[in-house]
Amino acid sequence: MADIQKQFEEFNDVVRLKQYEHNANLREKRDVILKKLKERLKVLFEERDDDLPKYTHFDQGSYKLGTGVKPLTGDFDIDVGLLFEVDRDEYRDPVVVKQWVYDALDGHTKKVEMRRPCVTVFYQNGEEPLYHVDLAVYSAADSNFDNKICVGKGKQGSPPENCIWEEADPDGLITVLTGKYSGDDWEQFRRCLRYLKRWKDLKFPTAGNAAPVGIGLTIAAYNWFYPKQKIVDNYAGQTRTDDLGALLDFANAMLCNFNLVFRDGEYAERIEAKLPVVPYGDVFEKMSNQYMTKFKEKLQKLVAVMEEAMKEADPVEACKKLQKVFGDDFPVPERDDTGAKRGPAIITSSHSA
Amino acid sequence: MSSGICFCNSQGGLFKIGENALLQMRAYVQDDPGKAEAGGVLLGRFIVDSADIVVDQVTIPMPGDKRSRHRFFREAKNHQAMIDRRWNQSKHRCNYLGGWHTHPEPNPTASKTDIRDWKRALRQNQFDSETLYFVIVGTQEVSAWEGNRHTRLIKELMSIPDQEN
Ligand SMILES: [Zn+2]
Predict the structure, then answer these.
(1) How much helix, strand and coil, in percent to the nearest 5, is found in chain A?
(2) Considering only CA atoms, which of B98, B113, B34, B41 is closest in space to residue B68?
(3) Under 8 Å CB-to-CB from A343, ≥6 apart: which residues?
(4) What are the pLDDT tens digits along chain A (353 aa)?
(5) Do A214 and A138 belong to one domain?
(6) Which of A251, B4, B65, B116 has its CA 20 to 30 A from that of A315?
(7) What count of other Cβ atoms lies within 10 Å of the Cβ of residue A6?
């Protein structure tokens, strides 16, 4: 039917968030924080007449994978991992280490918060959020007898049982995810993931755990996405990249993986996205049954619209339909641009009955 | 909302009558004994990189045409002017696709006169495609035929039911 791969690729160009190496703006913001952190930690430990444990930083999240999308609100999210050379036997409470980071950056902007998984620095223009930097604190493998990397969970005031070092494998996760596909297939994987993330940003409330987390969609894609080409010429065996088909198959595969489970005193249809590395947990765990139901319904709607678009002969109408699920950044071509150029016609008079 | 009617064409693609074109033609439905037959030409797109064809607009009865209850005569001149205008405006992307007319019956079938006229059009008209399309608007259904310029065979097209939603 209508070939709208060009429109999908234009959409991708608009929504994609460039990785650090191509995005000086975000890179600078990250580096400002890291510089500040370095200076302030030095001062803090000097004041205490103590030695600052060594640490290094690494990029994590969608920047590392290059699967990020531009936020709708302008609230960019920068993820940084801080790997401290601290022994967990010595620093049993991760909040102590997180507190160093918090104290070093507190006052740097109007709002700095210690949250359970990270320390977050918010940048605002008045009340309008501009971006925030999430700094996750890790204890390095080399500093521990068991040679495990752990991420510090917990915040000030949390009960001790919630302040834990949780085993993690940030490098391993990236290696596993990037290892599944390469070349054009990897590019299609990333494009389709971006389309789905933009849909998520548009269709779900941002507060709480109403929306499926980005890493969950990424793991779902790792599990159920398959690259797709469509045959355009049976005889010549000619094929063309088919993002619409690939995303439709992926969304359908996700729907097939909702299973009835008993949770919170009731049966509910839920989908799991288990980390392929330690701690192997389901990253959709925090979504309530109610939010899960909404997630499924919205996916069904997405599938229905994509199926309609696929049947549509007119690329203009197909793209208008897709705009309803992917938003105004999805381009609709000019009608005349979608017609092939043909030579002149000369008609004769005609009789009908 | 976009609605329209879709048929399967012989190239493995779709022949779609867009909403706008459909509304233009349906304005002439012969649902009353006082209404005369109407017709015109089909204008639209050969969708790039596909076998799909979309009718975007039609010409409607114009001065010089002759209309009666069971006959319609389409004088070429004014319809030709419209074809030329749209073809030029669209930089040659909006093209002549065939013709249409109305019938005062629910499920229209092609008359002998119609078939003869369509074959004549395939032979005498100049057009840059392998096929022409012919649409008859009945009081309930809309039917479409495809004519091949080489074989001059006329084939009724199968409609795709659930397109209008
Ligand atoms: Zn007729």
Answers:
(1) 45, 20, 35
(2) B34
(3) B92, B128
(4) 668 999 999 999 999 998 877 788 888 999 999 999 999 999 999 999 999 999 999 998 888 899 999 999 888 889 999 999 999 999 999 999 999 999 999 998 999 999 999 999 999 888 888 889 999 999 999 999 999 999 999 999 999 999 999 999 999 999 999 999 999 999 999 999 999 999 999 999 988 899 999 999 999 999 999 999 988 777 777 889 999 999 999 999 999 999 999 999 999 999 999 999 999 999 999 999 999 999 999 999 999 999 999 999 999 999 999 999 999 999 999 999 999 999 999 999 999 99
(5) no
(6) A251
(7) 16
Closest B-chain CA to A5: B49
| Residue A341 forms part of a structural domain | no
Q: Given the DSSP bridges, would you call strands A119-125 and A111-114 parallel, antiparallel or unpaired?
A: antiparallel
Considering CB atoms only, which of A2, A342, A344 is closest to B52? A2
Q: What is the CATH number of the domain that holds A263?
A: 1.10.1410
Report the domain count for chain B: 1
- CA-CA distance, B56 to B94, in Å (whole number)? 8
User: What is this model's ipTM?
Assistant: 0.94
Cis, peptide link before residue A279, omega less than 30° from 0:
yes
Cβ of B83 and A349 within 8 Å?
no
Q: Which residue of B has its CA nearest to A240?
A: B49
What CATH number is associated with residue B51? 3.40.140.10
Evaluate whether residue B46 is within a structural domain.
yes
Which domain covers residue B35, as residue numbers? 4-160
Which tokens sit at B15? Answer: 């022949």
Q: Inter-chain contact B46–A342, Cβ cutoff 8 Å? A: yes
Q: Which domain holds residue A224?
A: 174-333
Specify whether A219 is located in the same domain as A275: yes
